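Submission checklist for the structure archive. All mandatory fields must be present; incomplete records are returned to the submitter.

[x] Identifier: Type VI secretion system protein ImpF
[x] Organism: Marinimicrobium koreense
[x] Residue count: 165
[x] Sequence attached
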Amino acid sequence: MSHIARTRELRPSILDRLLDHDPQAVREPAPARHQYLSELRQSVRRDLENLLNSRFCMIEPPQECPEATHSLLNYGLPDLATVNISDAEKKQRFVQQLERILREYEPRFKSVRVTHLENRERTDRTLRFRIDAVLWADPAPQSVVFDSILEPVSRSVNVKESLHG
């Protein structure tokens, strides 16, 4: 599911192509390369946040439907009320699951690695993690780093692009 043909030119997602940022303009000028890359990074950040704030049903698909495992039925994270991240080993397992989900559902990533970040204060109960990825981009792949925070009370994930990857 997360395969982009290398011969095809990368272009904005269907959502980004449908959004009209300037409805008064009859034609929108083609974006400059730096503008295109900036918009690509912003749309990836937005889509990552949407992916990580989506929850999938924890029911196993039938054995006669093996492809259902890789379908939109499993898009997002498991219900965070059922996820235990109380110790280092469980946090590491959760981070590995995050990485697998990103590989499966973010086709713009050529490669991705997720690492757990330690909290600065012992009383901080948020789960912090960093997403290091390489985006398919033309003419050369682009590295991006996103620092993310999972808030345990609201069970929401905030994703911000890191300026100092």
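[x] Structure attached
Curator remark: The two ends are 28 Å apart (CA to CA). The first strand starts at residue 109 and ends at 117.
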